[in-house]
């Protein structure tokens, strides 16, 4: 059998996979290519995959057009630390950290950086000036108020937040102040959510005559279930830390300023909380995230095959060999 026949046949078979399967393969590409088990047609397939986005030009999304129309204001700041934890800050405090068009473009560019961060293990997403994010800047919304531009903005942000959730990093949203509308959607694009004692998450879209458009509804159902999602969206309920813990939207509550000295700033508390889940070498932590991602998004048979392939990237690796030498399994 010729190599071209094998390659084309394999590509044809893969094209029949569900879209979610193909997107997970994209996310796994860099690590799978490092393994000798991914040689041949499998490796060539992964090399041909594009980024793990939901939409592309064939859906009418032109990212360069989005960049050209981006309404200015604010920034998305990224700081990567030697600890393997990166901090992504939504920075537009004069407008409660609402997203301008240029901030949407900034976010996509910062996610691209994180996708290529080989030493990364964790990510904290926060807002500047003790406020998380109030969604879209209304000035930017008015600038793209026609349905066509609105749909393009929707696809652009769904792409970006889907890629954020699929990063090979364990991520946590540090929610201080308010997370409203698109800001509430942004919290669902992280693996975990930590809430300050006086913070609120609220899906206010109905008040604006809308529904979530950045993928927040779909992700919310996975986090809290369909009934709770209906209550939060239909009732525009305010989720405080107590309610958030009750329905599973919050994973922890930060100690307030009245707590004992030594608790640290909210960011320090979030770093301490996240650190317990990212101990160990970056390739192992990234592999953990990838097998959980495949289990969350793929049918069981495909998730099992993906898990097998990710397993092959760490079996016999430095961390595995060191653990075997030190007999650390039961420590």
Structure description:
- With 331 residues, this protein is an alpha/beta fold.
- The protein contains 15 helices and nine strands.
- The strands form two sheets. It has a six-stranded mixed beta sheet with strand order 1-2-3-4-6-9, with helices on both faces. Strands 5-7-8 form a three-stranded mixed beta sheet.
- The chain is globular and about 60 Å long.
- The N and C termini lie far apart (50 Å).
- The N terminus is likely disordered.
- Belongs to the enoyl-CoA hydratase/isomerase family.
- It catalyses: (2R)-ethylmalonyl-CoA + H(+) = butanoyl-CoA + CO2; (2S)-ethylmalonyl-CoA + H(+) = butanoyl-CoA + CO2; (S)-methylmalonyl-CoA + H(+) = propanoyl-CoA + CO2.
- It is found in: Cytoplasm, Cytosol.
Cα(first) to Cα(last) distance is: 50 Å
CATH fold naming of the largest domain: 2-enoyl-CoA Hydratase, Chain A, domain 1
Q: Assign the CATH architecture of the largest domain.
A: Alpha-Beta Complex
Strand order of the largest sheet: 1-2-3-4-6-9
Let me know the CATH homologous superfamily of the largest domain.
2-enoyl-CoA Hydratase, Chain A, domain 1
Specify the biggest β-sheet.
Answer: 6 strands, mixed
Key terms for this structure?
2-enoyl-CoA Hydratase, Chain A, domain 1, 2 domains, alpha/beta, 6-stranded mixed beta sheet, 3-stranded mixed beta sheet, lyase, Enoyl-CoA_hyd/isom_CS, ClpP/crotonase-like_dom_sf, 9 strands, 331 residues
Write the SSE topology:
Layout: H1 3-15, H2 19-33, H3 40-48, H4 63-69, E1 75-80, E2 85-91, H5 101-115, E3 122-127, H6 138-143, H7 147-165, E4 170-175, E5 178-180, H8 182-188, E6 192-195, E7 200-202, H9 216-224, H10 226-234, E8 238-239, H11 241-247, E9 252-253, H12 266-275, H13 282-297, H14 300-314, H15 318-326
Keywords: Cytoplasm, Lyase
Protein name: Ethylmalonyl-CoA decarboxylase
Enzyme class: lyase
